[in-house]
Amino acid sequence: MDVVFVDYIETYYSDKAKTPVPDKINGKFVQIRNKQTEYLVFSPKELTLYHANIVERFCLDRGLKGAYAGEGKRFDIREPGWEVVGGGKFDIDTSPKQVRLYDNSLAYGRFDSKGLKKKISSTGKFPGYSVVIY
Fold first, then answer.
1. Digits of tens for pLDDT over the chain (134 positions)?
2. Is 120 within 8 Å of 131 (Cβ atoms)?
3. DSSP label of 104
4. Which residues contact 80 (CB under 8 A, 6 or more apart)?
5. 109 and 30 in contact (C-beta within 8 Å)?
6. The CATH number of domain 2-133 is 3.40.190.10
7. Which one-letter DSSP state was computed for residue 97?
8. pTM for the whole thing?
């Protein structure tokens, strides 16, 4: 299965905040899969307050159908073969070169940590970084 890193961090800081990306970033992420690809979608806390907002943006960017459900707490992908596996929170720190993944999503449950360190490394997004999962 291919792994694609979707980065809304750069988008937020360059387009919305109009500031350089800070050395320490906190936010939320979701894992989304279809039959061929797993997407790791990271978004800073300032851009998306909820995991559902990340899923909605992902769908809008890719032309996927979806809708809010559960009193607006979930955004469900309404396309065959797509699923939101789970989510969590992240901290990225450039000083010790570390990506930390933890917690879960109230809407989608905890992310699938199996093989996640290797998947993140395979994207080439964080060369030389350690990935720590709590």
1. 899 999 999 889 988 889 999 999 999 999 999 999 999 999 999 999 999 999 999 999 999 999 999 788 899 999 999 999 999 999 999 999 999 999 999 999 999 999 999 999 999 999 999 999 99
2. yes
3. -
4. none
5. no
6. no
7. T
8. 0.94
